[in-house]
Design goal:
Layout lengths: L1 E5 L6 H14 L3 E4 L16 H11 L4 E8 L5 H14 L4 E6 L3 H8 L5 H19 L5 E2 L4 E2 L15 E5 L3 H10 L2 E4 L7 H22 L7 E6 L10 H13 L4 E5 L13 H12 L15
Parallel strand pairs: 1-2, 1-10, 2-3, 3-4, 4-7, 7-8, 8-9, 9-10
Antiparallel strand pairs: 5-6
Helix pairs in contact: 1-2, 3-5, 5-6, 6-7, 8-9
Length: 302
């Protein structure tokens, strides 16, 4: 089992850099940032740009994967996403993962002054994903039903660099179909607000939808890696070390490859605060005290 962590970029870099280097020391496979223009949980607090933060993290680390969980198709164009991802792939020496989701209406409104419907966000997302893949493959444009552009003439990737991994965030059948068609991986936050049993039952249901989509498309189920972000439900995964280990066991039973968790940032009262000692002990319980010798099955590198 791989472990990932979402490090919300709410600290100035002088102190925030410690989160990234410590996650690497613990053997976490991938550290992610969020991509929000605005969010109710960070009202009045500092919120750094995620992509610039990842560039700084690339210079401060050497082995840990770096990525977005997730980039927002609501406020990012395919050409911008393809270029910034290729740049981060180059800066990190091939460690970048583009997690890409539909985004939120709040972000779109804060960015453009207009508020799209859920259906509009979904339509855009379902075309942004293949458009990014097309640009990485050397196409100069893309033409879909709702999205089209041309004239992207620079080389798609830095010399000697492979394309980044593309992980598609999806929770319903249409989005999961996009992951099955175009993704190197799929990621989900499960069922928001649910208790533990309901959460993991929902993740298993989503996994079965992905299996069916892969079968329908003739794609090997194992070609699409699976990641779940815990901590967005109605229970606390780090209530104890045993609580986190139970989540990892449930993830294994659901066929998940990577469990991502919120890194304990922010002070008391923060929606994502936590006891760093409990988090570190829980990570060690899964990966082992020496990250090179995992206590449980699987690798610890991305």
């Amino acid at each position: 089992m791989r472990l990932g962590t979402l490090i919300l970029q709410s600290d100035p870099w002088a102190t925030g850099v410690h989160h990234w280097t410590r996650a690497e020391e613990l053997g976490v496979s991938t550290a992610y940032t969020a991509d929000h223009v605005t969010h109710r949980t960070v009202a009045g607090t500092w919120w750094a740009d995620g992509y610039t933060t990842l560039a700084a993290a690339a210079g401060a680390t050497s082995t840990i994967g770096l990525g977005t969980l997730v980039a927002s198709a609501a406020v990012r164009s395919p050409a911008w996403l393809a270029r910034v991802s290729a740049t981060l792939q180059d800066l990190s020496g091939g460690r970048f993962v583009l997690g890409l989701g539909a985004g939120t209406a709040d972000d779109a409104e804060a960015d453009t002054g207009t508020r799209p419907t859920a259906a509009q966000l979904g339509r855009r997302f379902r075309e942004v994903v293949p458009a990014v893949r097309a640009l990485w493959d050397g196409e100069t444009g893309y033409r879909g039903e709702h999205l089209g552009f041309d004239g992207v003439l620079p080389a798609p990737l830095a010399p000697g660099s492979g394309r980044p991994r593309l992980v598609v965030a999806a929770h319903g059948a249409r989005g999961i179909d996009v992951a099955a068609r175009h993704g190197d991986g799929w990621t989900t936050y499960g069922v928001a607000g649910a208790d533990r049993a309901t959460f993991w039952a929902g993740v298993q249901d989503q996994g079965r939808v992905l299996d069916a989509a892969c079968d329908r498309l003739g794609r090997d189920r194992h070609a699409v890696s699976r990641c779940v972000l815990i901590g967005y439900a109605g229970y606390r995964p780090f209530e104890s070390v045993e609580s986190f280990v139970e989540d990892v066991e449930r993830a294994e039973a659901a066929g998940i490859d990577e469990v991502a968790f919120y890194w304990p940032t922010g002070g008391p009262g923060s929606a994502f605060s936590g006891d760093p000692d409990v988090v570190e002990a829980a990570v060690a319980a899964v990966l082992g005290p020496d990250p090179l010798r995992p206590a449980r099955g699987g690798t610890t590198t991305g």
